[in-house]
């Protein structure tokens, strides 16, 4: 008999409906039994609308009274680490919205609690979990595409002044970073999931137009362990919005163009000249049943991980690889020096703080009063 896991939703803001759909996608494996929000009116309205039986405004009280199996955390970024740890301490597994934490030091605190409690905290990185992405990875891992050589990872989004008017946004201490940490993290994690381990980053970042502490654009050049090289752009300034991945293998180019989610129809394959590789074309077209890049796809795999008592993807060392890349982008951009993987260790100011402490002066001269 399969177990039904009792879940709580922490935060009932704009992303809450994605979590509702994810719970529904488990077809009874997960039951949402409570919701928490500091705004009593909002959480009560949410519970009334959805039929969730218990509404709380006190997170710790909810943990003690409900004792959930799963905590779905959808609060502002600055609260993620403490809430994830508190939930694991009472025996819950955690699926937390990005960014999972604000530094490698916080990531390592989460990992220590995972090891001690036997529970896990996974970051919501739903771009990994589409069936079409699994299909691509199988082709790549089997060698049918040849070696990866060149990559492009662009998150070209647009966030206006009204977006940054929310009090916690645009500040290092509460949003934890700009589009590198808060927007492009999804595509970069997806990119790493396909490309594998990275070795070196050279980056730049600036606040070109928005009245915020954090960057509004960053660019990075990345060298991977497999020898491939890639460029990454994260922007909050791009009116024509697009999320774009390009992977140039020896035998083909694979492209993915979307905005906030994708299915197999968003992918494109271009064979290397003379473009007569019928076997590769046929293998590419043999997609499995299409499951998009949804919260539900990730939650279903998360439930299977719980059934088996195994570490989920996008937790532990897997999540740390992504957080380390983002930290390296910030350190390289602020110090104007390349950063090698594994060199940001305890004692390095960037280990404890994405921006190295203080508020770095990255505002463009054209964006200063």
From TrEMBL:
Residues 135-245 form the GFO/IDH/MocA-like oxidoreductase domain. Residues 6-120 form the Gfo/Idh/MocA-like oxidoreductase N-terminal domain. It comes from the Bacteria. InterPro entries: Gfo/Idh/MocA-like_OxRdtase_N, Gfo/Idh/MocA_Oxidoreductase, GFO_IDH_MocA-like_dom, NAD(P)-bd_dom_sf. PANTHER family: D-GLUCOSIDE 3-DEHYDROGENASE, UDP-N-ACETYL-2-AMINO-2-DEOXY-D-GLUCURONATE OXIDASE. This is Gfo/Idh/MocA family oxidoreductase. It comes from Actomonas aquatica.
């Amino acid at each position: 008999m399969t177990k039904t896991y009792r879940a709580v939703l922490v935060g009932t803001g704009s992303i809450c409906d994605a979590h509702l759909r994810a719970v529904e996608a488990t077809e009874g494996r997960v039951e949402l039994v409570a919701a928490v929000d500091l705004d009593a009116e909002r959480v009560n309205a949410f519970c009334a609308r959805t039929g969730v039986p218990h509404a709380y405004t006190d997170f710790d009280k909810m943990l003690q009274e409900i004792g959930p199996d799963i905590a779905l955390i959808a609060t502002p970024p600055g609260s993620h680490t403490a809430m994830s740890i508190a939930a694991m301490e009472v025996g819950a597994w955690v699926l937390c919205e990005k960014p999972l934490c604000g530094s490698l030091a916080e990531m390592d605190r989460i990992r220590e609690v995972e090891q001690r409690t036997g529970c896990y905290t996974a970051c919501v990185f739903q771009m990994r979990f589409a069936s079409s992405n699994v299909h691509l990875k199988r082709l790549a891992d089997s060698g049918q595409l040849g070696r990866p050589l060149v990559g492009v990872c662009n998150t070209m989004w647009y966030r206006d002044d009204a977006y940054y008017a929310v009090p916690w946004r645009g500040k290092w201490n509460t949003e934890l970073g700009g589009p590198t940490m808060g927007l492009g993290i999804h595509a970069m994690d997806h990119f790493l999931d396909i490309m594998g381990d990275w070795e070196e980053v050279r980056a730049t970042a600036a606040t070109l137009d928005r009245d915020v502490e954090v960057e509004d654009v960053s660019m990075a050049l990345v060298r991977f362990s497999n020898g491939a090289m890639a460029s990454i752009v994260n922007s909050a300034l791009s009116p024509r919005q697009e999320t774009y991945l390009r992977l140039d293998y020896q035998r083909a180019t694979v492209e993915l163009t979307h905005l906030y989610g994708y299915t197999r129809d968003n992918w494109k394959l271009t064979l290397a000249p003379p473009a007569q590789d019928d076997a590769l074309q046929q293998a590419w077209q043999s997609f499995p049943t299409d499951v998009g890049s949804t919260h539900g796809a990730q939650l279903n795999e998360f439930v299977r991980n719980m059934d088996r008592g195994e570490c989920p993807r996008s937790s532990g060392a897997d999540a740390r690889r992504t957080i380390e890349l983002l930290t390296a982008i910030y350190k390289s951009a602020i110090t104007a020096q390349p950063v090698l993987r594994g060199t940001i260790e305890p004692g390095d100011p960037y280990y404890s703080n994405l921006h190295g402490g203080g508020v770095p002066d990255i505002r463009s001269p054209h964006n200063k009063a």
